[in-house]
């Protein structure tokens, strides 16, 4: 079953995300990939795979990916963010990570966690369904 995966990286982490994506290209190739602007272009070039590119993070790309989470159309987020270099759009980053918690969406914020997530037997298990919270109560 094809999933929609978002790949995002801050400037100082783009090389790390691209290196990680190259290592996991075979798995990523089985899924629909979306990314923020610059990162999406770099990933598409490096992997030779189609990547839907949203706007750059500071120009609304983080919020576009957040909308996918809220709509229930994103299956996982790989967000290599840089905690040591604050970005002008830090509130957008915090909001994106908050949405992952609100909607119980798997999120990896570094290479170690991304490795664990993408190699988990549950990652491509078609029988596994993530529990969605019911906020209608």
Task: Please tell me about this protein's structure.
It is a single chain. It is built from six helices and five strands. The mean pLDDT is 93. The chain has helices at 14-23, 25-28, 37-47, 61-71, 90-102, 111-119, and strands at 4-9, 32-35, 51-53, 76-80, 107-108. The protein is globular and about 40 Å long. The chain has a five-stranded parallel β-sheet, with helices on both faces. It has 137 residues and is an alpha/beta fold. The longest helix is centred in the C-terminal third of the chain and has 13 residues, at 90-102. Belongs to the methylglyoxal synthase family.
Class based on secondary structure composition and strand pairing? alpha/beta
Assembly state here? single chain
**Strands of the largest sheet, in order across it?**
3-2-1-4-5
Termini gap: 31 Å
Q: Tell me the number of helical segments per DSSP (H or I, 4 or more residues long).
A: 6
Beta-strand percent range: 5-15%
**Quick one: how many beta strands?**
5
Shape: globular
Task: Report the major sheet.
Answer: 5 strands, parallel
- Alpha-carbon Rg, integer: 14 Å
- The average pLDDT is 93
Order of helices and strands: EHHEHEHEHEH
Helix proportion? 40-55%
Query: What ranges have pLDDT less than 50 throughout 5 or more consecutive residues?
Result: none
Enzyme class: lyase
Organism: Bowmanella pacifica
Catalytic activity: dihydroxyacetone phosphate = methylglyoxal + phosphate
EC number: 4.2.3.3
